[in-house]
Amino acid sequence: GDENVTRSPTLATPPAVSKHNENATVGLAIHYDKEFECINNLKVKQMRKIKILTIGTIAVILGIIACKKEVELQTQTKDSGFDYQVSSNIPYSQIKTINKGFKGTKGSDIMLCFPDMETFRFVMNELKRQTTEYDSAFMAKFNNLGIDAINEKVEEIGYDEEKPLFNFAEYFKFYNLHRQIAEQETEYLKQEELNIENDPDNHFIIEDEVRALLNSDCEVKINDTIYKLTEEGYFAICDGNLKSLQKIGEKKGGNISIPNVIFVEGKTDTKADGCNSDQRNADKKESGKYQIKWVVSHWTHPWDRRVTAKIDNYYKKGAFLNTWLKQKAVS
Questions:
Q1: Are 309 and 220 contacting, i.e. CB atoms less than 8 angstroms apart?
Q2: C-alpha closest to that of 115 among 96, 133, 129
Q3: DSSP percent split of the chain into helix, strand, coil, nearest 5
Q4: How many CB atoms are located within 10 Å of the residue 150 CB?
Q5: 138-186 pLDDT per residue, tens
Q6: Cβ atoms 200, 184 nearer than 8 A
Q7: Distance between CA 241 and CA 289 in Å, rounded?
Q8: C-alpha to C-alpha distance for 224 and 239, rounded to whole angstroms
Q9: Are the CB atoms for 219 and 104 separated by under 8 Å?
């Protein structure tokens, strides 16, 4: 219902800065009486001294402020490694968050809501473009370094090529599938020996830009329909009923008798032209302290059907070579 809909947050507009004009009214008492002439002359001299002192004090203060601003400006513009503002075309005002009213089996309590499939596809592709732009800018900045030096720079400044995806989620205060897998992957890589079967990144949704749009239970609402993705296919709750979503629970597919709910099985999708969809193959090759992992996937989603391949490189780090770090490779 509408009571569960939360409109997307708006960025706070900084308050307008008003300039204050300070008007000083100086009253001059002019006396022509000779009896007070010398006194007045003395006062005038004293006032001139005060004015000179005041002007000098102001000059010193302004000098101090100017120096302070110069230092602050130098601090702000000092190159701390890599600071790049990616351009964005995401229509934030058209995207909402929905409170489900319950926690899913993977811990989610909200999901994103898009006005239509076209907007969803646009944002998905825009996030992909942003990550490409961001990483290209990083590589361009340090293109004079060799690949080993670039990887050292990545570790030194804490660079993350997926920052645009984290920024997107942070805008909506949205804990998505992308962040959940990233956190789990960090813990996974702390193991001395990696078992690809337990790799959180070896998820049936392998595209990071899609992970960024789904909650941790792989759910999203597009127009009036709620979609819940599973390894066997996806559920479509055509009337957007949250109670129906709760009833689905941990079901991954098969026959389901919930009004206005259908399940589309990827392997029998007639759109696949005889090809079995919802298939994934992952493997790794390890050589000393280096490892390469690859994943190939053919998947049917409500928005499209994709064949995707992904390669990641890792190397062992630490005093006892007991942790793994993702690294860049020569393209």
A1: no
A2: 96
A3: 40, 20, 40
A4: 19
A5: 999 998 988 889 888 998 888 999 999 999 999 999 999 999 999 999 9
A6: yes
A7: 50
A8: 6
A9: yes
Mean pLDDT of 111-129: 98
Please, are residues 249 and 214 in contact by the beta-carbon 8 Å criterion? Answer: no
CA gap 151, 38 in Å, rounded: 81
**According to the model, what pLDDT value does residue 22 have?**
35
Among residues 301, 283, 124, the alpha carbon closest in space to that of 230 is found at: 301
Scanning 233-286, the segments in alpha helix (DSSP H) are 242-248
Is residue 76 predicted with pLDDT exceeding 60?
Answer: no
Answer yes or no: are the C-beta atoms of 236 and 225 closer than 8 Å: yes
Average pLDDT (105-113) is 95
Using pLDDT thresholds of 50, 70 and 90, give the confidence band for residue 306: confident
pTM for the whole structure: 0.71
Share the mean pLDDT of the chain: 77
| Cβ neighbourhood burial of 258 (10 Å; 0-12, 13-18, 19+) | middle
Q: Are 157 and 79 spatial neighbours (Cβ–Cβ below 8 Å)?
A: no
Secondary structure letter of residue 210 according to DSSP? H
